[in-house]
Design a protein that fits this description.
20 strands; 309 residues; 31% helix; globular; binds manganese (II) ion; 5-stranded antiparallel β-sheet; Arc Repressor Mutant, subunit A
Length: 309
Amino acid sequence: MEEQDMISAENLATIKEVGKASADAMLHAANLVKPGARLLDVAESAEKFLKERGFGLAFPINLSVNAEAAHYTPSFSDERRFAEGDIVKVDFGAERNGLLGDGAITVDLSGKMQGMIDAAEAALDSAIAAVRHGVSVCDIGKAIASSIESAGYLPIKNLGGHGIKEHDLHAELFIPNYDNGDFTILEEGMVVAIEPFVTTASGKGMVVEADTCEIYTYANDVTVRSPEARALLVEISKSYSKEPFAVRWLSGLVQSKFRLYAAISELARAGALDPSPTLVEAGGKAVAQAEAQLLVTKDGCEIITRARL
Ligand code: MN
Ligand code: MN
């Protein structure tokens, strides 16, 4: 393994603090997810929770509802509220010194979807049991899929886990939620996230991009035509040059919501920003997610982030 892949003792201590704070923030948010609560209020409360404890944010909190699997975060004037019958994925992480937390839990407001959530958590348990130095990512995927399928559900095949490095939430390694035949191995010292996504047997087991996009990542400094987009890019490169950001975090910088989205779109088209659009189940079916962050060790793993309701 390359020397830079190994985590130093100092960084290990920090990432454990980051991981604990991430789990605490997820639970804080999950406890606010109730029928009638505004998504925006939950998002702002959870982000404030980490900032008050001296952490940055690894990414804007994701509050993805029902068939939304990932990447929904409220807009700045968002009036959406949780409803009875919703199934809500809370995916969040803290940041300190470029070290990133990442984890997720699912909240059932329907009283009917706990089975699917349990299937996601059991699949994550199976994956964690398989993780050690030298295991291939397809073997982890196989453990995840067989656990989910034995419970009568489907894994989402085009979402999965990933490596995590400094300022790099999705480092190159991909950990599938099924046996994809990839024999890339996990090595001692790697930090990874594993995230089974589960849908009903009548779903497609795939996600597609929706029209909404509230999360972007700074990519390049480019020259754009409109002065508003130019000014916005200066601010983004100053405040959010490393980790993904929410459009709502920029709401004070542009006169109107319409002009803010126009400027963001111009920057994305020009290649200054990478979009992370909301991802929805292709068959429109409900999705559950469980996610933990792990440090791979010689004989197993150490859990960095995991929240359980
Ligand atoms: Mn996540
Ligand atoms: Mn992740």
